[in-house]
Recover the amino acids of this structure.
């Protein structure tokens, strides 16, 4: 993110380049480069709200000049300020959050700024439009209310942005530059999502492209309609909040819209989130002894409010995505307090370091498997029931699942095995070159009443081979080699499992303890189809804690 020196000095004072560099670094903003007229600032991935110039200036003003939670006014929806979500879109990109902004005075610089915010959020927070897509439209060319629906691609016809003629949805994916770049996000869908106004004019086909007629902002535009579409309403709301607050800081007036789905939702919602925390815990984490009054002051410096009722509450701005735990609040307070004020101490303990045997084993397994030209992957500990069970057939584990209370994302359970994650990676890379041979070493979780937390943990290894000749023999050869290199003896007993083909599945028994440690076989065609994989897969998963 680049700001002019004038913009920075107006906020933090008329300082030398060295002083600016020091102060910005203390505010957790890495300075990449300072020139005669500009300052280039690195924005960390956990702060997408700082990817816009208004967002970054808002943060600097709170930190250096005007501490406190900034409030934004949302005007009530006017007549026909509605978006109706049709059930036809549920199978492709099921949710949207929308708003209207009026009173904008656009010039070339502001238009570029909005496009810049849009593309940065697409690329980072939106994972290259996989998680969400953002559309911005001149309200003057649209008749409200708006419908969000799914249509067969051949029935979708409009002139895409910066394209010479009208083409259909399928042609957009092959002929338009943006369609070719992001077409893989829709190519296997039976219907494509579209936004359509009351005149049945198509506004856009997310996550690909806007219409040239109804989706092009100009300097004459005063009122805009903004939508975020994707898979998780919370992600979409946070994204919309980031854009809304940036546009409000640019002089726009925010108007809410009614989102009609299974139930009616008013969007956007800019109310701060009440986040309970303990002053005692904060001080313990930081090694300080800050009174409540000082903590309130430090939170204000980070643009976060403070409220005392039955609990001590931090009021986290609606555009912040990075505050999910009390530790995150402790970090905010540390930044405001100043890392340069912390006094280093040598720990009053004496220990002799030794490498964990599990780390040694995992490193050895990694060296063996990479030597066989397998690629190591790493997936999230959190997942969903859909990914972990329904798409791969592990339904017998459903009653043992460990759910996360108040999860901030769609991922709301701890994974109980690695195979589903491995299949998902192969599904998401179906366009990559074959053969695809991958493995993952990672932690899995299960219910354990004897454990202090009620949760047990194991270290597992999963290997998946995906190509036209992948079979039981090949995956067994890899297991043979791995066990031989680890000096372990094993045997395989034929078994059945819904994820694997009957007669092509075996249970792995470790001979020295006569205990089953895993399973291997060929993945059932039903689950290949569920995950849109067109090549055979042979896989194994073993518990390496027993090794």
């Amino acid at each position: 993110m680049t700001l002019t020196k004038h913009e920075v000095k107006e906020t933090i004072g008329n300082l030398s380049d060295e002083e600016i560099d020091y102060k910005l670094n203390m505010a957790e903003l890495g300075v990449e480069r300072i020139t005669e007229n500009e300052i280039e600032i690195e924005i960390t991935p956990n702060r997408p709200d700082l990817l816009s110039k208004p967002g970054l200036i808002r943060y600097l003003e709170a930190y250096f000049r005007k501490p406190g939670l900034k409030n934004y006014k949302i005007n009530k929806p006017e007549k026909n300020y509605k978006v109706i979500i049709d059930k036809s879109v549920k199978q492709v990109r099921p949710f949207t959050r929308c708003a209207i902004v009026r009173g904008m005075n656009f010039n070339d610089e502001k238009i570029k700024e909005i496009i810049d915010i849009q593309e940065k959020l697409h690329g980072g927070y939106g994972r290259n439009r996989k998680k969400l897509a953002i559309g911005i439209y001149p309200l003057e060319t649209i008749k409200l209310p708006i419908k969000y629906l799914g249509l067969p691609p051949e029935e979708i016809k409009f002139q895409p942005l910066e394209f010479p003629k009208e083409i259909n949805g399928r042609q957009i994916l092959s002929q338009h530059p943006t369609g070719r770049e992001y077409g893989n996000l829709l190519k296997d869908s039976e219907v494509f999502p579209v936004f359509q106004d009351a005149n049945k004019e198509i506004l856009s086909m997310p996550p690909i492209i806007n219409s040239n007629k109804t989706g092009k902002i100009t300097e004459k535009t005063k009122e805009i309609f903004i939508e975020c579409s994707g898979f998780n309403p919370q992600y979409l709301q946070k994204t919309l909040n980031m854009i809304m607050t940036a546009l409000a800081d640019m002089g726009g007036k925010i108007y809410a819209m009614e989102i009609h789905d299974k139930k009616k939702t008013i969007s956007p919602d800019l109310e701060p989130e009440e986040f309970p925390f303990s002053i005692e815990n904060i001080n313990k984490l930081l090694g300080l002894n800050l009174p409540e009054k000082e903590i309130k002051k430090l939170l204000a410096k980070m643009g976060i409010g403070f409220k005392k009722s039955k609990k001590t509450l931090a009021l986290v701005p609606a555009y912040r995505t990075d505050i999910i735990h009390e530790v995150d609040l402790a970090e905010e307070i540390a930044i405001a307090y100043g890392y340069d004020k912390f006094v280093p101490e040598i720990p009053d303990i004496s220990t002799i370091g030794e490498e964990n045997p599990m780390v040694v084993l995992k490193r050895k397994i990694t060296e063996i498997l990479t030597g066989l030209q397998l690629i190591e992957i790493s997936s999230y500990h959190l997942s969903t029931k859909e990914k972990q069970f329904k798409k791969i057939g592990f339904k017998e584990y459903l009653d043992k699942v460990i759910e996360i209370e108040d999860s901030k994302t769609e991922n709301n359970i701890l994974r109980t095995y690695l195979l589903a994650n491995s299949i998902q990676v192969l599904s998401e890379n179906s366009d990559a070159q074959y053969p695809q041979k991958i493995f993952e070493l990672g932690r899995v979780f299960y219910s354990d009443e004897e454990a202090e937390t009620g949760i047990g943990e194991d270290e597992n290894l999963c290997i998946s081979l995906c190509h036209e000749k992948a079979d039981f023999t090949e995956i067994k050869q890899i297991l043979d080699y791995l066990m031989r290199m680890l000096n372990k003896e094993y045997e395989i007993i034929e078994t059945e499992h819904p994820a694997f083909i009957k007669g092509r599945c075996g249970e792995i028994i470790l001979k020295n303890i006569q205990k089953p440690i895993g399973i291997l076989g060929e993945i059932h065609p039903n689950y290949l189809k569920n995950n849109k994989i067109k090549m055979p897969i042979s896989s194994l998963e073993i518990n390496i804690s027993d090794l």
Remarks:
- Residues 389 and 397 are 8 Å apart (CA to CA).
- The radius of gyration is 27 Å.
- The mean pLDDT is 91.
- The first strand starts at residue 2 and ends at 4.
